[in-house]
Design brief:
The protein is mainly α. It has nine helices and two strands, in the order H-H-H-E-E-H-H-H-H-H-H. The chain is globular. The structure holds zinc ion (2 copies).
Length: about 160
């Protein structure tokens, strides 16, 4: 797969020209460093932002329980910056597939069976939508993640294992 070094995110922040850098130093198919990944997990309190499932077991959270989801998918030009990332569990992530955020939210609002399967109600769908939209608009970057101390927490966590 070819990757474009100047890939632009189609989120509001990137299209307004403030950031939009795809993350550098992507090696071996890894698009995010373990520290940054864990820092985002700390930011979202290691909790699926859609269904609320959390992994108190940090090892499980790291290995399989929770995943980072691109709010705007890569295939739609989403960047790897923090403002385009949100923690969701693997189950929710898999169900979403390649849908855009609005397609996904619309489906969740209309499909009661799917909501039941994920164990969520319409209120939680709206809350997720608000969180994702807020994250995207926030322009949150790796620098903010560092300033808020999440990087340090992630580093300590990785050093401890
Ligand atoms: Zn972006
Ligand atoms: Zn979930």
């Amino acid at each position: 797969m070819k990757k474009s070094p100047t890939q632009k995110c189609s989120c509001k922040i990137c299209t307004s020209g403030r950031t939009g850098k795809a993350s550098r130093k992507q090696t071996g198919g890894k698009w995010i460093t373990p520290t940054k990944r864990n820092a985002v997990l700390f930011l979202d309190k290691r909790c699926c932002q859609l269904c609320g499932r959390d992994e108190v077991d940090l090892k499980a959270a790291k290995e399989r329980g929770l995943s980072l989801d691109h709010i705007t998918c890569h295939s739609h030009g989403g960047c790897n910056e923090v403002h385009n990332l949100i923690v969701v569990c693997v189950r929710c992530n898999t169900k979403r597939g390649a849908r855009t955020l609005s397609q996904w939210v619309k489906l969740l609002r209309n499909d009661e069976a799917l909501r039941k399967e994920l164990g969520i109600n319409r209120k939680e769908v709206d809350r997720f939508n608000r969180r994702a939209t807020k994250r995207m608009k926030s322009g949150f970057t790796t620098k903010d993640l560092k300033e808020k101390g999440h990087y340090k927490k992630a580093k300590d966590f990785l050093a401890k294992k």
